[in-house]
Structures are given as structure tokens and as C-alpha cells.
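Appendix B. Worked example

We walk through a single record from start to finish. Start with the input: the chain for ABC transport system ATP-binding protein, Spirosoma utsteinense, length 231.
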Amino acid sequence: MITLKNIEKVYRTTRIETLALTNINLSIAPGEFISIMGPSGCGKSTLLNLMGLLDEPSAGQVQIGGEVVTQYRDRELARLRNRKIGFIFQSFHLINDLSVIDNVEIPLLYRKGDAVGASRREMAREALEKVGLSNRMKHFPGQLSGGQKQRVAIARAIVGRPDIILADEPTGNLDSAMGNEIMNILQQLNAGGATIVMVTHDETMAKQTHRLIRLFDGALVGDSVLARTDD
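Next comes the structure step. The output line below is what the pipeline stores for this chain.
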């Protein structure tokens, strides 16, 4: 599903060069639920951005679904992101002036032909039902709790029925009860077939996934298969 080969990422300015990732080789199979851990500044979010085609490597190759995408043009990358990848962010990134259902519809606005008008609305309703927020469709983000906002963000991520969900600290701004609620939703999505990659600082949350990747100073230093609790 996702393959990274000999990935290196360097950020350069006129005065300084920062090596963010070095010699990353990683394969993620369809249906896996992966967590990525490491200290702040170790490259976790950079790695997630490369997987999500939001950034490009300085060296190496990125494959999504068997396609080598490293040399894709911006328009091709945007189309692939929109159809195959859903993003969940720690800070929700909801638009306060839009209702919940309008926020969820946003990714579908960039599609042509197969998701227009009433179809978009129905897909948004279905996504909100999956996260248990069908009774909040007409509310605005300012009327929601933190946990509810994150559920809206998850609905927005899955509305286009992506194969891959990338989550950057999805429980980081929530208390433990709300964090567990979000993890339950992610586990249900994974059980439904979604491949999920989650960056987290929370060891307890990480242990609820299938596999734990550890980074340190931009290098992959650990790759552990975790005990499955659903067998």
C-alpha cells in the first residue's frame, strides 16, 4: 500500500542545512494500523507528510498502491491525495463559519463528475453517521467539544472513502476518555479495511495498533509487530 525506499529529506536555507530524515526504508501493507513514535523533532510529521504526498523527498522513492509517485506533477499528486488519502490533524483544522456537514463535504468539492450536489451531501451524512455525529450536522465547530471536533475531522477524512488514513496526533488535544473514543473509531475504520498510519506521543495509544515504528534523529530505529487484541 505504502512503500518508502531510501528516503532522505533535507531542508535547506541560505545559511543552514537540516537533515530531517535519512535512509528510511519502510513498507506498509493494505489493512495495517501503524503507529509512529519518537521525540519531538525526530521527523515523525515529515515522514507522514511524505506518505501523504504533501511534501517530496530530497532523495529516494515513494510508492502508493504500487505506483511510483515521486516524479508525479502537482496536479497528479493532488488527484491521488483526494481519492486515496484522508488526513486527520491534531488541531482539527475546521472552518468555523461552515456547518459540520459543510466542513465534511470540503474534500468532495475538488472531485469532478462522481461526487456532485445531492451525492456529496449524502456521502457527508454517511461519514458523520460513522463517527456518531448525525445529530450535529447543522451545528458549527464553535458549538462542539474537542472530541466532537475531532470526530468531524475524521468524518471529513473518510468522506471520500480513501484507502489510506494518515493521522497526526489525533488524540493529542483530548483528554483520555475522548482519546479512547477517537481510537475506537480509528479501530473500527481499520476493521472496515482502511490502512491507517498514526503519529503519536502516547505509548498507550500506540500499543492499540498493529505495529510500532520508532524514529530518532530522522532515522528509523525500531519496527515492532504488536500483539493483536482482536484475535
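Two observations about the output. The chain has a mean pLDDT of 90. The two ends are 23 Å apart (CA to CA).
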